[in-house]
Inverse folding.
């Protein structure tokens, strides 16, 4: 039997936006109404509901039960290895030395906020492991957080489809990955040396208590996440990052994201081809 599809009205969009922004910071503008509609439609069917309003009410009363499928439905998890590498390239010996001197001796700590299935923190690890200034540290740790548990499981597994490796050349592929063949097709497993020091946990950018470390990070990467945030979500994220990054530490955003003019806690600085935000002493 073909299930009838429901339509999402503008009023319902506003209600969902209020909910999604308060829980996750996310916002779907009017021109993305159909995207939200098609992403939530399977949840209506799964819960045997006929109207988006009924699904909205269900979320109001039993969000806990729907949390996992809801986050999977509403998030864009697109990621791949070696994405926007200019930011990783900026982390040369000099900058890493500077970052570690300003923080706690012998330690370098990074946070990847909105890490999806791990491509970003693992790429960061691959780059860092090329620098003696990073490897000389007693502790090099990268924490990856995301609201999508399924993506985090994939990150832990560290086995990827060719599409995640699409910008790597043959030499890079075989240096960093071992190929695996299975029922699901070709897979590439990240070699253990490049997984070392990276750990994952469920964390919500809007909820600092869910960040894995209460000690401030030397740098936070939050790339291609805030473009999906509401204005209030964006402001809350900046405030939380201002607490999560130590004074003198750095915040890296995606190329199309900027916080210039939105905060006094960070100062934009150019590093080679990219802009990063330095946590000011305020
Ligand atoms: C487009 S992916 C970006 C992945 C990676 N940072 C990159 O640039 O390749 C966005 C990720 O942010 C996550 N995300 C969205 N809102 C979040 C929130 N409030 N807290 C943590 N992660 C969030 C999504 O689940 C998704 O995996």
């Amino acid at each position: 039997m073909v299930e009838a599809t429901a339509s999402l009205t503008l009023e319902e969009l506003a209600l969902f936006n209020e909910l999604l922004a308060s829980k996750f910071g996310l916002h779907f503008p009017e021109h993305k109404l159909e995207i939200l509609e098609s992403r939530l439609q399977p949840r209506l069917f799964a819960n045997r509901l006929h109207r988006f309003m009924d699904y909205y009410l269900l979320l109001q009363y039993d969000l806990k039960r729907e949390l996992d499928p809801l986050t999977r439905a509403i998030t864009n998890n697109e990621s791949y290895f070696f994405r926007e590498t200019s930011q990783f390239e900026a982390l040369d010996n000099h900058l890493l030395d500077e970052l570690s001197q300003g923080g706690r001796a012998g330690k370098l700590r990074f946070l990847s906020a909105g890490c999806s299935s791990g491509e970003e923190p693992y790429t960061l690890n691959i780059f860092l492991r090329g620098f003696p200034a990073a490897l000389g540290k007693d502790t090099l740790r990268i924490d990856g957080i995301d609201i999508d548990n399924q993506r985090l499981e994939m990150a832990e597994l560290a086995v990827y489809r060719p599409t995640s490796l699409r910008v790597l050349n043959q030499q890079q592929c075989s240096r960093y990955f071992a190929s695996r063949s299975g029922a699901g097709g070709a897979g590439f497993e990240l070699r253990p040396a490049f997984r070392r020091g990276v750990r994952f946990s469920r964390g919500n950018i809007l909820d600092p208590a869910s960040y894995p470390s209460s000690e401030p990070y030397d740098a936070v990467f939050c790339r291609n996440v805030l473009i999906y945030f509401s204005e209030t979500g964006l402001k809350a994220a900046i405030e939380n990052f201002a607490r999560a990054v130590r004074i003198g530490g750095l915040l890296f955003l995606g190329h199309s994201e900027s916080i210039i003019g939105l905060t006094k806690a960070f100062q934009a600085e150019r590093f080679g081809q990219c802009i990063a935000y330095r946590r000011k002493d305020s």
The CA atoms of residues 15 and 103 lie 43 Å apart.
